[in-house]
Amino acid sequence: MRPRLFNMKRFHQFLFAVSLVALCWLAMMAVHELGHVVGALVTGGSIERVVLYPLAISRTDVSPNPHPAIVVWLGPIFGAILPLALFAAFPRRLTVLRNVSRFFAGFCLIANGAYIAYGAVDGVGDCGEMLSNGTPQWVMFAFGAITIPLGLSVWHSLGSLHQFINNPPVIRQRTTYLVVSVLLLAVVLGFTLSPR
Question: Which entry of 117, 147, 168, 181 is 20 to 30 Å from 2 by CA?
Answer without folding.
Answer: 181
